[in-house]
Design a protein that fits this description.
Alpha-Beta Plaits; 3 helices; 109 residues
């Protein structure tokens, strides 16, 4: 498993517009080889921005990298400047490789 995760600062007051844009965008990834799941999480809010965390789960890092080179990726990231007024800077990206011994393991407290 590979988890691609980014944090994005959305300008206060632009949250609804941002969420609408992401709902449209997410549809473009369904059916892509190796794609498993996508989540958008709304985080802390301050006077300047609302923090969003978005992550996608893939079968492997290779599947994720292949997607970033695909037409589907280009379509999902088409015209980034048209939404640049929604963000305070670019996303902060991290990628994580799952440890097979822990995949599917859940702790309930």
């Amino acid at each position: 498993m590979y988890l691609a995760m980014s944090r994005l600062k959305v300008v206060c007051g632009k949250e609804v517009e941002f969420e609408k844009a992401w709902k449209k965008r997410q549809k473009n990834i369904n059916g892509v080889k190796g794609f498993k799941d996508f989540n958008l999480i709304k985080g802390n809010i301050n006077k300047e921005f609302t923090l969003y965390i978005f992550h996608s789960e893939w079968n492997s890092e290779t599947d994720f990298i292949n997607w970033t080179k695909s037409d589907s990726f280009q379509l999902a990231h088409k015209e980034p400047n048209s939404q640049s007024n929604l963000y305070l800077g670019p996303p902060d990206f991290d990628g994580y490789i799952g440890l097979p011994d822990f995949e599917g393991f859940k702790v309930v407290i």
